[in-house]
């Protein structure tokens, strides 16, 4: 079975042993959004009636939320309870008719479906470029199964190696102090720490929890991810970071040559 298309950026030898190609190569060139939708629809095949579901946030996860709503309307799914990971997903879920609840009521979820900003060959993730990392991490760490859905541009060899942001949610109090501490923490990796701002008015971006986001950019590999994770979380002022280590149980990747499902 040809799996050469499942490439982790920068990887010499992608780890694809446990992958399964589930659709044949398509002759049509698909847009990135169409690929996201294909991955999302594939993930929704894991959903069964009666499940308590973690509903992710972002341009990929929104296709899954829409699909679940559609199947509920068609009567193909019944008795679903959704736990949204952001205010935006909350609104979307209501609009498509998914009954909602929260972690206080359902501390253990059957399944969560969500996108990611980066995925490494071990299914570690960077999340939070949409700003929802804290609620996502709370919900997705309470799930028996966590299905991650991406198009193939999200695959990387090392987290933080794509040159894009590694988000850290912090309290607004003395944010410059916290940003500087984070920068110094990863000085050897050439870290730049930037407060996320709304592009329209330059005001700080505020999360659903009333916090700020510091985006970390690295010139070099940050080394052991667990060590980096623990160190960030020990810093007073930090609420959570966007590294989701050892949480995903299944990865669904949609690419030009088809859809691949990889189980951990
Ligand atoms: O905060 C946002 C979430 O972590 C998203 O799941 C992640 O950013 C991926 O989003 P998208 O599917 O839009 O690329």
From TrEMBL:
Gene Ontology biological-process annotations: pentose-phosphate shunt, non-oxidative branch
Catalytic class of the enzyme: isomerase
Q: Which UniProt keywords apply?
A: Acetylation, Isomerase, Phosphoprotein
Q: Which GO terms describe its molecular function?
A: ribose-5-phosphate isomerase activity
Q: What pathway annotation does it carry?
A: Carbohydrate degradation; pentose phosphate pathway; D-ribose 5-phosphate from D-ribulose 5-phosphate (non-oxidative stage): step 1/1
Any single Pfam family the record assigns to this protein = Rib_5-P_isom_A
State its Enzyme Commission number(s): 5.3.1.6
Q: Which reaction does it catalyse?
A: aldehydo-D-ribose 5-phosphate = D-ribulose 5-phosphate
Determine the domain of life of the protein's source.
Eukaryota
Q: Pull one GO CC term from this UniProt entry.
A: cytoplasm
Q: Which PANTHER family match?
A: RIBOSE-5-PHOSPHATE ISOMERASE 2-RELATED, RIBOSE-5-PHOSPHATE ISOMERASE 3, CHLOROPLASTIC-RELATED
Please state which protein family the record places this protein in: Belongs to the ribose 5-phosphate isomerase family.
What does this protein's UniProt record list under function?
Catalyzes the reversible conversion of ribose-5-phosphate to ribulose 5-phosphate.
Task: Indicate what this protein is called per its UniProt record.
Answer: ribose-5-phosphate isomerase
Name the lineage. Eukaryota, Viridiplantae, Streptophyta, Embryophyta, Tracheophyta
């Amino acid at each position: 079975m040809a799996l050469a298309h499942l490439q982790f950026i920068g990887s010499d030898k992608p780890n694809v042993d446990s992958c399964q190609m589930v659709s044949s190569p398509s002759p049509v060139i698909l847009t990135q959004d169409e690929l996201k939708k294909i991955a999302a629809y594939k993930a929704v095949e894991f959903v069964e009636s009666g499940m308590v579901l973690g509903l992710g946030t972002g341009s990929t996860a929104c296709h899954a939320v829409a699909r679940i709503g559609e199947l509920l309307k068609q009567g193909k799914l019944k008795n679903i309870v959704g736990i949204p990971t952001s205010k935006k997903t909350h609104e979307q879920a209501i609009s498509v008719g998914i009954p909602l609840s929260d972690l206080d009521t359902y501390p253990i979820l059957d399944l969560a479906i969500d996108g990611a900003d980066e995925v490494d060959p071990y299914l570690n993730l960077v999340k939070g470029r949409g700003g929802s990392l804290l609620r996502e991490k709370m919900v997705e760490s309470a799930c028996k199964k966590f299905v991650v859905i991406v198009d193939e541009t999200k695959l990387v060899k090392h987290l933080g190696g794509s040159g894009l942001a590694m988000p850290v949610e912090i309290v607004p109090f003395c944010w410059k102090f916290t940003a500087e501490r984070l920068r110094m923490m990863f000085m050897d990796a050439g870290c730049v720490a930037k407060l996320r701002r709304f592009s329209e008015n330059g005001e700080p971006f505020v999360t659903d929890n009333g916090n700020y986001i510091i985006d970390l950019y690295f010139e070099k590999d940050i080394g052991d991810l667990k060590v980096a994770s623990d160190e960030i979380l020990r810093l007073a002022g930090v609420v959570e970071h966007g590294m989701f280590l050892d949480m995903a149980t299944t990865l669904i990747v949609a690419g030009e040559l088809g859809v691949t499902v990889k189980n951990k």
